[in-house]
Amino acid sequence: MGAETINGDNSELVTELNHDHPRKEEEEEEANIDDDEKKKIKKQVHFVFVHGISHGGWCWYKIKSLMENSGDGYYRVTCIDLKSGGIDQTDPNTIFTLDDYNKPLLDFLASLPDDEKVILVGHSAGGLNVTDATYKFPNKISLVVYLAATMLKSGFLTEEDVKDGTPDLSEFGDFPEVYDIAFGLGQDQPPTSVVIKKQFLRKINYQLSPKEDSTLAAMLVRPGPIRALTSARFDEQGEEGRIMEKVPRIYIKTTQDRVVKPEQQEAMIKRWPPSDVHVLESDHSPFFSAPFMLFRLLVKAAANASL
Questions:
Q1: Pairing of strands 179-182, 193-196
Q2: N or C: which end of the chain has fewer CB within 10 A?
Q3: Is 51 a known active-site residue?
Q4: What is the rounded end-to-end Cα distance, in angstroms, of the chain?
Q5: Residue range 128-147: average pLDDT?
Q6: For residue 283, is pLDDT > 60?
Q7: 46 is catalytic
């Protein structure tokens, strides 16, 4: 299993508000890498991006733009809004199962032609969604990319799964201090939805990201269906599990992550080794803080998947 480290500390992106255009040298470097990798791609690659809790397809806007403007129509991009995410107006306090939460992604995969395969990219808790999709639609997926994501073969089945796959934000305060919590089934039941309080968002999720991106995120994040996510269980022993194991997986680690901490990422990788591991020196949200480096990794992944 190989590992690649890429420095995602784009200081201009972090410190300057006016950074609509990357440096010329960076543009040229990325274009050259992109052209080299494109030569390996036999046909158009379809990326399907899956957001984490409280987010939506909107969080991928930089990556979508880079891919769709890279020329020649090499990359097709779909950014899914899970139930209650993005522009989906479902009340998160009515979503109690992963199947229900994941319905937009599962419906999308079911609608694909029989001969079409996609590359799934799951971020953060979206790792549970892409794992679920891989169990259910292994023949529609050519590669799964876990980006700072929860990667658990069985879901939350054991205490170790919970320890490795659940954010520990205790350094920022107790659970009710850090999260806005809703109890849709009553105060005597587990929470049905949560969202990180706005005063903590930049410090926890986006500390290396451009300030305008963290500002945008603070305007758009919404409570997410925590009960649905904690219900995630997968049958790795069944036929679906055996077929799912044939789908290649890679993991992209984020070294400055305050949500899914590096030691948690490493623990999940060790327990369920992917075919390859890459490293980004970024916060939990490299689609904001290191978009060019993330784009390059995804282009390489697409090229390798097409070989």
A1: antiparallel
A2: C
A3: no
A4: 18
A5: 97
A6: yes
A7: no
Q: Dig out the tokens for 52 from the structure.
A: 């984490």
The active-site residue, picked from 132, 164, 257, 283, is: 257
Options 55, 123, 278, 284, the catalytic residue: 284
CB 14 within 8 A of CB 202: no
pLDDT for the residue 37? 61
- Would you call 91 a catalytic residue per the annotation? no
Looking up tokens 């903590």 gives 200
pLDDT in the model for residue 35: 60
Which tens digits make up the pLDDT trace of 212-236?
A: 999 999 999 999 999 999 999 999 8
pTM attached to this predicted model: 0.88
Q: Which of 54, 124, 193, 285 is catalytic?
A: 124
